[in-house]
Amino acid sequence: MNRKDDQNPLTPGELVRTEAAALQGLAARLDGAMAADFEQAVDLIVHCGESNGRVVVTGMGKSGIIAQKIAATLSSTGSAALFLHPAEAVHGDLGVLMPGDVVIALSASGETEEILRLLATLKRKGDALVSFCCNLQSTLAQASDVALDCSVEREACGLNLAPTASTTAMLALGDALAVAVSLRKGFKAEDFAELHPGGKLGKQLAKVRDLMHGGDGVPVVEMSTPMTDVIYEMSSKKLGMTTVQEAGRLRGVISDGDLRRLLVREGGAALGKTAGDAMNAQPRTIVAGELAAKALAILEERKITSLVVVDANGKVEGVVHLHDLWGVELI
Description:
By secondary structure, the chain is α/β, with parallel strands linked by helices.
């Protein structure tokens, strides 16, 4: 569409600017008149989680699709949440509601019949009700413990009818609420990683312990081990290095580079040396609870291929290799 016409007087750019204006209006309300109501909604959700309650998000039609996304965002940022279809709710699914839950209901008009049917049950159970409405005088808004204003000047639709700008505002408000709750709870990257174990994101936020070689996969020699046996251990474990340990504690590391430097320095006499003669006695290490991205940053900074994983007492727990971190991104 490159021109205005009578059927749809908005150009593509104007459509987007209409939605952007809706977000600007929402932001202004959040910074001003709606700030206290928003904080009250955050309080309700935080206290709900402290008492093992859930957040139940509901909406019909396009608002229902936005409600599903808000429930997913809440769940992924540390708040137990689920979507309840309002039409199915009145045919038995209301049983999912438990005392102490918080219900977030989305309805632009505030008069959606399927949602209004839920009000009596919500009041009877005593669950808190937060609504996203474009009309604060509506039945839903007036029945809510907290009513958050999603009103827009117009929809991004030539007929000013299709839910567009209003659902964009609802989505942004849901994101703001989920993030504010997670910040209040002290939700950290480590917590996020535990909830996203799969795919690229999961590997980016994985812990070192999830990717390291442990047990029999760790190459081990002692200080007195002759170089021929050191080379055999390095070759058999295929990590391009070996740990040098005493009683399970790390004393040093021998890498392929250390072997090459020993051969240049000692020539044929190198094979008569021991692991203690060739090792780097001050290797860089990491703990198992660190993020994999931290391990990758160290490897890139030091231009090395492996890190030994140790506990607080210097006991070797594993080895993480550069190849194990493929797909991890620095964060």
